[in-house]
Amino acid sequence: MRAAEIMRRYGIKPDKALGQHFLVDKNIIKKEVELAEVSKDDVVLEIGAGFGMLTEALVGVAKKVVAVEKDVALANILRQEFEDEVKAGKLEVVEGDALLVDFPPFDKCVSNIPYNIASEIVEKLCHYAKDTTLCVQKDFGERLVAKPGDKNYSRISVLVRFHFEPYYIYTVSRFCFIPTPKVDSCIVRLIPKKERVVGDEEKEGFFNMIRALFVHRKKSVKNAFIASRGMASLKKDEAKKVFEAVPYGDKKVFRLSVEELAELFEWCKGQKLNFSKTNG
Question: What's the CA dihedral at 55, 59, 63, 65 to 10 degrees?
């Protein structure tokens, strides 16, 4: 499959509103699939399949590919270009918004995800916690793999490190895409963790607490909690009193490890503190 030929044949014009930048370098695509270690036993989820450059590489090695594509025209192109694979059950095209559809069962995710919904997609993939290899905008990739104390360490870094061991694999030049984006991209791999610091039944409360802290990521833990007191339905005087003895009180929020955050969560439970997603 040649990108220029396909785009010319179908009159494809990338939609900036959908964050469409198509990775067309076949060497990079081949390397991405190899790094994902896709086998003939794997059902692979591909999000934002476009006109099928990565899809073509995946159907050649996977048991089955589930390609999610929001753009109706591109979904139709996938069905036409991969008609034999669709008939053989090697490819399933799911037409719809990846943020809204329920993903069919899959073993691995290998995707070049749209820039404008990358954060939301990663959050959704965390709920599935499957072996994941992504091509994302470089600065976003650096946030996904950031460690405590790094300048890029943020709430989504914690979310990823809670579910996965994240790895920055390599940088992908912006010139490997059509149209050429303003920045380079990168390949990251997320390997699911076997054990987590908080059980599934408490994840929502844990991440609500993290949200409260990372709104003020450069403040000390004590001051961040006080500043986000509304999320715990506390008044200022109450918050000052409660958080005076909080563990890691003087430590900057962006320096906290996932394990330290879990300790904080246990302390908050002991204080009968419940955090909501928003102030109020």
Answer: 20
Chain segment 135-179, per-residue pLDDT in tens: 999 999 999 999 999 999 999 999 999 999 999 999 999 999 988
**pTM score, two decimals?**
0.92
Backbone angles phi, psi at 175, to 5 degrees: -80, 0
Task: Kindly report whether the peptide bond that precedes residue 114 is cis, defined as omega within 30 degrees of 0.
Answer: no
**Cα 249–204–270 angle (5° rounding)?**
45
Cβ distance 225 to 246 under 8 Å?
Answer: yes
Confidence category of residue 6, pLDDT binned at 50, 70, 90? confident
- In this prediction, residue 1 has a pLDDT band, given cuts at 50, 70 and 90, of low
Q: How far apart are CA 77 and CA 96, in angstroms?
A: 14
pLDDT digits (tens, 9 = 90+) for 224-240: 999 999 999 999 999 99
Domains of the chain, first to last: 3-192 (3.40.50.150), 200-270 (1.10.8.100)
